[in-house]
Design goal:
With about 450 residues, the chain is α+β, with helices and mostly antiparallel strands. Its EC number is 2.7.13.3.
Length: about 450
């Protein structure tokens, strides 16, 4: 079943059916209440007649219909009555053209009021009551009372007409409103479906149409728009990464090819061959470093980030110890400022790689004879690692771009331009962030923040 039909069925037709059922049940209740009111009136009248049937001198049986001051009302309401003697013959009747039975014995009825409905003509019904009663002399008599149900039938017919008109009007209104609502809702859903089809085909160029609603579909549209924007950004970054990687790979390969071509043009001495092979080896090392960094970034992006309890101070101290051999020849002091312990849940391998990249970057740009300071700040919601050097610093316009893959401020410095990109990947995978700020007094201060799991 299509969405439009489902909305019409459950939004209009089913409520209309339930409304019709409710109106029908209300009609049944109304009929019962009206009939109960008639029965109550007949029972009261029977009680009144039974105590006064024989109250005249000589204890002659009689009915009080004609003597009542409300005889006009009784006639208007079509009240009827009859009295039957011990032999079942009708003694008295009111009015003269009553539809009471010709004969009714006390044995035919009970001493409790017996009520029933009888049709006396097509479309005309009466409610009748029969009751056995003894005279003061002990003679069995029967009394019969009846009232027309024409007013009840008229009321029920009026209710049926009104209920039918109301039900038809409400059904038509619900149907019209639901058709309009279904049309708008289906258009909104179909636009999202068409957009999802474009995403499936790899088209991230456009956002889903603007939705002015405030319901869950509008929220879904906003979520899809946000996801589309992120997919587009990721796609652009992927294409840029591939292009940059191809460029970075082409450079050392071109240098190696040129070196080999030059070497092969004429006969070379062993010293010249060693020198050429050394330069080729340098480019091979550069390719190896680039491949390792690309593999590390790819591993970070597809890895399952299982966080385990680690001690951050011990991990950072181990990273510092591994870099002292590089820092000491240039008289660069590696200094740690941290509390005694800083336990946290993290992925130890990527976190160590991020700290190594920050230390290698700081040592690379730190002038000889200066220091690289590493500070650990242990907070309630996050752990922050700061790595400060006293180098040239990072210009404000490049403080964000240096975290993009293959972005290097100084082309003459060795490196693949992926170290800081990996740092940011690790930080964001841990629910944190990485950024750089100027160090007071000169240099750069890199921040690596890890959120507590």
């Amino acid at each position: 079943m299509s969405l439009r039909r489902r909305l019409l069925v459950f939004g209009a037709l089913l409520p209309a059916a339930l409304l019709a059922l409710a109106l029908f049940l209300i009609g049944l209740v109304l009929d019962h209440l009206l009939l109960e009111s008639v029965d109550r009136g007949l029972t009261l009248q029977a009680a009144s007649e039974s105590v006064s049937l024989f109250d005249r001198p000589g204890q002659d049986a009689h009915l009080h219909f004609g003597d009542s001051a409300l005889v006009a009302d009784l006639q208007r309401l079509h009240h009827q009555g009859a009295l039957y003697g011990p032999d079942g013959a009708r003694l008295l009747a009111y009015p003269a053209d009553t539809v009471a039975p010709e004969r009714l014995t006390a044995a035919d009825v009970t001493r409790a009021p017996a009520l029933q409905t009888r049709a006396i003509a097509p479309g005309e019904r009466i409610r009748e009551l029969a009751l056995a009663i003894d005279s003061p002399r002990g003679e069995p008599h029967a009394i019969w009372l009846a009232v027309s149900l024409a007013s009840n039938d008229a009321a029920l017919a009026a209710y049926a007409r009104a209920a039918g008109l109301i039900g038809a009007a409400v059904t038509a209104l619900m149907l019209l409103l639901q058709i309009a609502h279904a049309r708008g809702l289906v258009q909104r859903v179909q636009s999202l479906h068409a957009h999802m089809q474009r995403l499936q085909d790899g088209d991230f160029s456009t956002l889903p149409p603007v939705d002015r609603g405030t319901d869950v579909i509008a929220s879904l549209r906003d979520a899809i728009a946000d996801a589309t924007d992120k997919l587009r950004t990721a796609s652009e970054l992927q294409h840029r990464l591939v292009a940059d990687a191809a460029h970075e790979l082409r450079t050392p390969l071109t240098a190696m090819r040129m070196e080999i071509d030059v070497t092969l043009r004429r006969e070379r001495s062993p010293e010249q061959l060693v020198d050429a092979l050394t330069r080729v080896r340098t480019e091979v090392d550069r390719l190896g470093e680039l491949a390792s960094k690309l593999l590390a970034m790819a591993t970070l992006r597809r890895a399952e980030w299982e966080r385990v309890p680690i001690e951050a101070v011990a991990a950072v101290r181990a990273a510092l110890d591994s870099h002292r051999a590089v820092a000491e020849p240039r008289a660069i002091a590696l200094q740690l400022h941290a509390p005694e312990l800083a336990p946290i849940r993290a992925n130890p391998g990527p976190l160590r790689q991020a700290v190594d990249n920050l230390l290698a970057n700081a040592i690379k740009f730190a002038p000889p004879g200066t220091a690289v300071d590493v500070t650990i700040r242990d907070g309630d919601n996050q752990l922050e690692i700061l790595v400060e050097d006293r180098g040239p610093g990072v210009p404000p316009e490049h403080q964000e771009t240096i975290f993009a893959p293959f972005r290097r401020l100084h082309r003459g410095i060795d490196g693949a331009g992926l170290g800081l990109a990996i740092v940011r990947e690790v930080a964001e995978a841990h629910g944190g962030h990485a950024w750089v700020t100027p160090r007071p007094g000169g240099g750069a201060c890199f921040h690596l923040v890890i959120a507590r799991a």
